[in-house]
Amino acid sequence: MAAPSTPHGFYPFIHILRGFAPLIVAWSHLAMLFVATNGINWQGADIWTAYVGKPLHIYQYGGHIGVVIFFFVSGFIITHASLSETRTEFAIKRVLRIFPILAVALAVTATARWISLSFGLGEIIGTKPGGFWDYVQAFFLYDMVSAQPQLLSVTWTLVTELAFYAMTLLLLGSTRLNPERATYAMIGLWVAIEMVWSGNPAITYLHFFTLYLGLLIMGRVLYLADTGIVGWRKSIPMLLLLPTLFALFYSNIQPGVLFGSAPEPGAAYIVAFMVFLCCMTYGASRVPRVVSFFADISLSLYLLHIPVGMLVVAATF
Q1: At what angle do helices 213-226 and 156-170 cross, to 10 degrees?
Q2: What is the pLDDT of residues 99-136, one digit of tens each?
Q3: Looking at residues 241-246, what average pLDDT do you find?
Q4: Strand partners, 127
Q5: Is the pTM higher than 0.85?
Q6: Are 177 and 87 in contact, with CB atoms under 8 Å apart?
Q7: d(CA 33, CA 98)
Q8: Where is pLDDT greater, at 55 or 9?
């Protein structure tokens, strides 16, 4: 069991994963995606692909593994936080975690795009042009859920995060009374949402966001199992049910893709789960200072690495 190292519930292994996950995503975008998109011949990318990417079937240059780890971490730690906060505290803290840095990230995106276009560096990968009101809408993530051009592509994960926050808040009372039953209710709600999107072709694209709720729920189940609140015996059926449902929903949206030709997306989910499970089981007792630094700025790094990082890389090349 990965017991917290402080009375406040600080989990070293969570902090370590939180530190590494955005670095994996940043690597996949700034090193690999930039090179591939611009057709640049970089020996580092060739070496990584030949000796890491292809042999290990690394999907999306490893970036998707980082995102999946993010979702497991969020499901784990948000469940922990929800059990010690009032509804008001929970809602306010989640809003303050997401929206201030989102506003900064969008402002930086607009500035980075202006600099890039002004100096002839071209479009910044992972961003789209937009006016003032487009950025206002993007602040409320409307560009994501309305199928409009996404001003800052990585903000798609925030839609999934906020949906999970809403589900957690909705079931907060029942979670404290019977966490096992509340988790099954959360799974049922997720299934209902997926069925609604499937029954309406006009909004089927919303699967892209809600599909990943299953990963956050898995993080929740792992927390309830590891802390003994529900325990492993009662949690294992849920840990078998969730990936089964995830695979079914994924295959319904993109038939033959999950475990199709290499690199398979399915491999990323398996690797991310095994990494999380191993870290949780054999977790460290302390967090190296440099890792702690990246963990503390993980969300900022995740949101800003596209506008800032892509601008710097474009100027370098």
Answers
A1: 50
A2: 999 999 999 999 999 999 999 999 999 999 999 999 99
A3: 97
A4: 152
A5: yes
A6: no
A7: 26
A8: 55
Q: What is the DSSP letter of 3?
A: -
What one-letter code names the amino acid at 15? H
HEC profile of 204-267: HHHHHHHCCHHHHHHHHHHHHHHCCCCCHHHHHHHHHHHHHHHHHHHHHHCCCCCCCCCCCHHH
Helix locations, 254-306, DSSP H: 265-281, 289-296, 298-304
d(CA 259, CA 100): 38
Could you tell me if 268 and 59 are in contact, meaning their C-beta atoms sit under 8 angstroms apart? yes
User: What are 273's two structure tokens?
Assistant: 């789960």
Would you mind telling me the total number of residues written for the chain in this entry?
Answer: 317
How far does CA 208 lie from the centroid of its chain? 12
Token readout for 168 is 């957690």
In the numeric block, the tokens 């276009």 are attached to: 117
Which residue is it, tokens 């699967």?
A: 207
